């Protein structure tokens, strides 16, 4: 018979707690740890901005690439810089280290709040507007400024067109586009991707493709590679022709890029004498920027 021990008797140091007690203790410790981890994780998430598909947001997460983009500009000839779509400020952080007055324009309310809370010295230079609709002269008046940014794919071409409209104020431009768009902008005549963006941009800016960025450095990752390019305005950026007519000739010509200019520019009601010029035997993708300027001058004289 096992010896019975009175409640008042001596404690038996050899008594081992039940496995159930161990199990319960472990569960409690584990629960506390998991609870702490969950709280920590939720706090981290609260300080992040949720990427919104309808805004085309893909937040850059690679610091070295952000710094590389920030270093791509010369920061000469202007005192102001505008970053389009800063998101959580991965690029902004490096821009604020430059000897330049940095402004940011952001349409996403959540991103704006994040920037205000995390970049206090930027708070009065955050423009909560749609870049495509906002009148930038309200901020910069007639002062020159540069543009930089990791642009949403769905509006990147429109951003470029607005930049071209304001070219008299924008001497430099550095931005991230979908890779194929960036390559198209920088391509030369004869290339399969040479088109409207190529000609109109290179008429006023020297375009340089800088580097490719893989999808893995974004959150969420896009389905394609991105490309960063640099535009430096030409010293003489005023064309020796009617600029509105130049835009129209380029856009009309490329609407039917496989046809000769004699056919694609038929809507201009050109004289037979002009259409006999050998330049009209060419397709638009075969003309350099200078040849498009010369073509515009010919059409201008014909009218």
UniProtKB/TrEMBL annotation:
Keywords: Cytoplasm, Methyltransferase, RNA-binding, rRNA processing, S-adenosyl-L-methionine, Transferase. Residues 65-235 form the Ribosomal RNA adenine methylase transferase N-terminal domain. InterPro entries: KsgA/Erm (IPR001737), rRNA_Ade_diMease-like_C (IPR023165), rRNA_Ade_methylase_Trfase_N (IPR020598), rRNA_adenine_dimethylase (IPR011530), SAM-dependent_MTases_sf (IPR029063). It catalyses: adenosine(1518)/adenosine(1519) in 16S rRNA + 4 S-adenosyl-L-methionine = N(6)-dimethyladenosine(1518)/N(6)-dimethyladenosine(1519) in 16S rRNA + 4 S-adenosyl-L-homocysteine + 4 H(+). Its EC number is 2.1.1.182. GO terms for molecular function: 16S rRNA (adenine(1518)-N(6)/adenine(1519)-N(6))-dimethyltransferase activity; RNA binding. It is an enzyme of class 2 (transferase). SUPFAM superfamilies: S-adenosyl-L-methionine-dependent methyltransferases. It comes from the Bacteria. It is found in: Cytoplasm. Its main location: cytoplasm. PROSITE patterns: SAM_RNA_A_N6_MT (PS51689). The keyword Methyltransferase applies. S-adenosyl-L-methionine binds at residues 58, 60, 85, 106, 130, 150. Specifically dimethylates two adjacent adenosines (A1518 and A1519) in the loop of a conserved hairpin near the 3'-end of 16S rRNA in the 30S particle. May play a critical role in biogenesis of 30S subunits. Belongs to the class I-like SAM-binding methyltransferase superfamily. rRNA adenine N(6)-methyltransferase family. RsmA subfamily. This is Ribosomal RNA small subunit methyltransferase A. It comes from Gelidibacter gilvus. The lineage of its organism: Bacteria, Pseudomonadati, Bacteroidota, Flavobacteriia, Flavobacteriales.
